[in-house]
From TrEMBL:
Organism lineage string: Eukaryota, Viridiplantae, Streptophyta, Embryophyta, Tracheophyta
Catalytic activity, EC: 5.6.2.4
Species for this entry: Castanea mollissima
Transmembrane region(s): none
Record GO cellular component, one term: nucleus
Signal sequence bounds: none
Catalytic activity: ATP + H2O = ADP + phosphate + H(+); Couples ATP hydrolysis with the unwinding of duplex DNA by translocating in the 3'-5' direction
Span of domain UvrD-like helicase C-terminal: 308-621
Protein name, entry field: DNA 3'-5' helicase
Record-annotated UvrD-like helicase ATP-binding domain positions: 11-307
Amino acid sequence: MPEEYSKYLQSLNDRQREAACNDISVPLMIVAGPGSGKTSTMVGRVLMLLKEGISPSNILAMTFTTAAASEMRDRIGAVAGKATAKELTISTFHSFSLQLCRLHAEKLGRTSEFLIYGHGQQRRAIIEAVRLLENEKSRQNHNASILGEDSNDITSLQLLKDKSKKWLKFVAQAKASGKTPEECCKMGDEMGGAILGNYNGILKSCNALDYHDLISCSVKLLTDFPEVFKESQDSWKAIVIDEFQDTSSMQYDFLQILASHNRITIVGDDDQSIFSFNGADISGFDSFRKDFPNYKEIRLNKNYRSTRCIVEAASSLIQNNIKRCQLKDVLTDNSSGSKIIIKECHNESAQCAFVVDKILETASNGSAANCSYGNIAILYRRQVSGKVFQMAFRERKIPFNVHGVAFYRKKVVKAIIAMLQTTLPACDDGPYRRVFKALLPFEKEEKKRVIDYIDKISTIRKCSFILAASDIFSAKISGTFKRSQLTQGRKVLSTLEMISKLVNREQSISAIITSVANMVPQKYLLEQRAVIDVDGGKLLNEDNDIRSVLQYLLDDVSEFLSTKFVAVKGDAKVAAEGKGCLNVLKAFIEFISERERDNFRSRRHDNEKSITLTTIHQSKGLEWDVVFIVKANESEIPLLHEFNGVAKENGNLIEEERRLLYVAMTRARKKLFILYVMMDSNWQMLQPSRFLKEIPDHLREVQAEVSVQELQTKQQHIPNRIAQFSVDVPREMELSEVDVPNDFLKTCIHKASEDLTDPLEASNGNGFLRRFNVENRS
Ligand code: ATP
Ligand code: MG
């Protein structure tokens, strides 16, 4: 065995080593709590498979996010060498099944060029599916369609659009549970069955699949086509899966067939299952036990990541869940560390101020060497809670990185991608429409009028968007357009022609992307600045947006070219040079479209010296020395969904929410802060998360907000105001309980004190004073 391998395996503890080195022909299940080295053991398992003579190109490792896939490739590469790591297939379920579907597209009634429909395209397909059904009905009844005589008119279109939301949801659910149109009909839902059937038919006629289809089509390929099954057995001689608890039942079916040879290792922790909204189903562990009866189960119980205090606090929390299938004792030899700080804050800005203070304190303590910004993370339930931190960090020039910044969802980036997509064969209307939106230099309303008109012509003539646009702008159709509109429309068409020439000249992808990015008009960039602002992140730290957008894209091009993916897809020689042949461009667009779904920011961009801002869901599997969990309030964790205005609460949901906090807490190595706020921006009182009470007293230090009395003695100018508040607040809030206004009062005073220090702010409508006066007058 290469020396590096044995060194790595020696660094594991006995149980981890036993797992990694277990007989590779025996199905293996590793179950363990957070930070116990599951992922580390999985790396060891891959080394063992290599050592046993399985070629790296025959090993398939599945992870749940592209970030986790990159991480795993890096970790294996560090031991086995980059060349070997590159040979491995480390993939997410979606990109793996996409490749399989492409390879056998004709068996699915598609060509290998098939399109993947995103949300917008799915919506248009649903609208069409509903329209078809309505037309069919009206024909049968000899009545006018309920949509009106002319189903092309604007109001009927609007009606269709409204309906489409409901039907999209229906189709997604039906597909997730593997229902066919016929099954829907059998279950009495004839309308649902008909719409699903129409929708599938439209996708087929457009040579498209949607994301839901990928896994089910892969299962179909493996079960209905013995030759595909045989090929998969020859190709993937061993399979390892990290974060198994997040597999959906359909993904499990897929795995089970792929692993018919029994060389499968699954690694997971049911307590960290937090993706049930995506169909994750922890009953997969039981299915595994049943379907692979000669399996071996190994449990790891030593936490290497966190201090004892954090480990114990997290364990106490999760013990409140009743439905746990594998009870785990998590122990640690680490020092007990400091208590978990639970901090009460008046509002989100006070919360942010506290975090910033703590961060600067850590940095100025001289401990910055031990705890660089890269070792700090701020975790929140919803992306929106990160906004205030982005602003504060930007102001103070503290470097930060937003995970899930949705780079590929930025309109500017989408426009660039759409421009590239128009060069692919079988490009449908979506990208063309987007390109017109980006390139037409009109105000929003005018732009919309022009695009709606093209849409209308394409619907009436039953032709594509781009064909309608060409006819309109080349004046084959006498439209109502002004001369300037015709001129600008023509310009867009010639830009599209230029892009297509670029691609045909077989330049490198980088060169094509650079040219295309430079075609995005300055006006559009400025228009979209507000959108970029909302997402925040590094992008705005740089003064020239398009250059940083381009740099991000080019980074991803080089990462894409360094993976095995390209060689699989096309002409190896062209691929190696990264030349812009259509296949490579198409493969690149697929590569990044998966990142879009993942909200992925490549780890390479994660500057070691930056603070990480991320949602808890995205923080999975990662770790930092210092973690701040912010806005740990009721209504965030647990986040309760409202149905007809009533928050719906059920045991399963609450348990999943508890697991979410568990995942968040167990990301911390040394120091954990949990913060909650007392009031939201609409002056509504908020409660701390119910879960905070489940952390034992001896493991936490609760830091309350300053009391009214303290505030009075600290800030002499406050008392006058208190008199006013104490009279007016209860009236305003119409509250019967006495203790709530007190809380409210505390917050008001804090806010008023802030306002008084900045009278300008108080008077410009942002502050409390104005609000107070208004309330007072009424
Ligand atoms: P999670 O459930 O959060 O995904 P995990 O079980 O996958 O956690 P790892 O990420 O593999 O845990 O490991 C957690 C930390 O513990 C890492 O920093 C890793 O380097 C360290 N670690 C794992 N095993 C050992 C070991 N045997 N000796 C020392 N450190 C270890
Ligand atoms: Mg892990």
